[in-house]
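Our consortium's second objective concerns turning raw sequence data into structural hypotheses that experimental partners can test. To show how far this objective has progressed, the report includes one record in full. It was chosen at random from the queue rather than selected for favorable results. The single chain below, 439 residues long, was entered without modification.
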Amino acid sequence: MKLEGRSLKHDFFRFIIPSLTAQWVYALYTMIDGLFVARGVSELALSGVNIAMPFVTFLFSAALMFAVGSSTIIAILLGKKEDERANEVFTQNILTVILVSSLITAIVLWKSEDIALFLGATSLTVEYVRTYITTIASFSVFFICSYSLEILIKTDGYPMTATIIVTAGAVLNCILDYLFVMVFHKGVWGAAFATGMSQLAVVLLYLTHFCSSRTHMKLIRFTPSPSLAWRTVKTGLSSGITEFSAGIVIFLFNHAILTYLDEEFIVSYTIVTYVSTIIVMSMAGIAQGIQPLVSYYYGKGSPDKYHRLLRYALTFGTVFSVIAFIISRSIAVPLVGLFISPEMTELRRASVSVFYTFSYSFLLCGFNIIIGGFFTAVEYPKSAMAVSLGRGFLFVALSLGLLTALFGGNGIWQAATLAEGLCLMLTGALFLHYKKNMP
């Protein structure tokens, strides 16, 4: 296996850089769709795509739950030299992912309008939302498999291969978006179809690796194990919730905006969401990047090494957060201009103000996500779950409820920073408890 290289620091960057790049590319998938929809259809259609985003995030979070759970177990087993057992975990994961994605497709196609309304679609946006989620749902198996295989190929010891494949998929997505939205004028359906086709292409590229002689993970005959399935879900659930937290946050904010502000502010929040997603997924990339290494050394019984990896990740994440905060604020005005027409000057001004207020949350999210990911990698599922639930739902709902009660619609934009701050206190307390009991 290629999990041990020249040095621990070298291995850290060897896994972190491809993982970060892959996360940026995944974040760009939705941003590209939004940009082409805003320019090729309308700002209202862009609102519809944003309202549909929690569903897309749900697909990725389902993939991540199974992928992180299985890859953590696989890395631990490889550290213990139990290769055959690792292949059983890999095989059961692939079959489970296919079954789950097929079920999701059937449910969404059956209840598409109800789901669109639940997500927050209005009479003006419901058709955009319904079209987007049904088209994406038709490609669910490829969405979930592509993200799952991206995690597993890194655990297989080939992080750069994952980055190359993901990047190729993003380039294809750009080309197809341009063709279907700008040239063929297929609107929201065209944007969703382009994204789905790019995911299909990515899965085919991953299969060329897992069907080759290079891979250490092979499909084998196995006996389905409910206990293994539960261990996989239990281990990966916190990472899935961390991923899905972006979708839950979008869902909660969209409903708050529709309750306290005008519908046009969905566009403002959409722009903020794109940048926030890139930063959150970058932190998730750091957590996912160290996960195979941490789990491997955890399996080998080398706490000095996996604790040092955590220190590297926290230092890197802190520096990244500060740089991202500075850069994002400096590009706020031109970024807003990409999505909102020049004649909508008042909405442009309001969107920049919203961006500046929201951006303080970028400084706090890294510690929560990285520590939560570390808890997963060393099989501390309860602590990982507490961080994920706090950050992904509880503290956001609490902050939105409190600040809107005190300040009305103006309080919406401070809620993200307050939620991250509350989660930071919880994460710090759990980590101090871990340190007292760590090996």
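The partners drew two points from this record. The CA atoms of residues 364 and 421 lie 7 Å apart. The chain has a mean pLDDT of 87. Both points have been shared with the crystallography group to help prioritize constructs.
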